[in-house]
Amino acid sequence: MRKNIVVNLICEVALRLFLFAVFLITETLTPFHRIIHPEEMWLYKNPRSERDTVPTWHMFVSDIGDHCVPPRPSQPRPDYFYRCFPDGVVTEDMQCTGDPGSIMEGRKSFPSGHSSFAFAGLGFTTFYLGGKLHCFTSRGRGKGWRLCATLLPVYIAAMIALSRACDYRHHWQDVVAGSLIGLTVAYTSYRQHYPSLSDQDCHKPYPKTKLSTTQERKLSNPAFKLDV
Questions:
Q1: pLDDT in tens, 89-107
Q2: Is 203 annotated in the active site?
C-alpha cells in the first residue's frame, strides 16, 4: 500500500515537472506570423493599455495549456499596430520598429490565457460549491442563496475574461475560446474527484481505495453488523 502511494506521488511530481518544461520550451517559440492586409489593419489599431485590469504575473500555469500547440496559430492582438509602430508611422517595407519582445507578445492573441486561467480555477470553485451546497439535488434545489453563492465564482471569471477585450488585449474569439478551454479543464478535473452535481452524494469525494463488499454494505447501512 505504502509503495503504491510513493509511486503515485513520484508520477505526479514527474508530470508537473514535464508540464513546466513544456511551458518553458513553448514560451520561447516564435508565434505564427499571419499576413495582415491593408484593408484589415483597422482591426489592430486599438490603443495600447499600459496596465492590465487583471495582473499577469500568476498566469504561467494556464499558459501550459495555451502554448501546447507550437507554433501558436493566432491572429495579432487588437493593439498590435501600435506595438509594431509605436509612433503610428508605417514604414515603406512594413517592418516593425517597436520593441521585439512586445511585438512577439502581440502575435500571441489566441486563446486568452487570462480567460482560461480564470474559468479553470473559478469554474472548479463553482462546481465544488454546487456539489457541497446541493444546488442541483432535491436537498438544495430552489434556494436562491445557494445558487447565488455557487454562481459567484464563475461570474467573477466572466468579468476577468471580459476585461481582456476591454483592455484591447484580445479579440472576442480569443476570450470565448480561452473560457471554454478553462471551463472544460475545470469540469474534467472536478469529475476526477466528485460525482455528478445531480447525484445525491455530490458533496462526497470518491473513495481513494476500493471498498470491499462488506465495507460498502456497512457504510450504506449503519445497523449492519458482521458476524464473526
A1: 777 777 777 777 777 777 7
A2: no
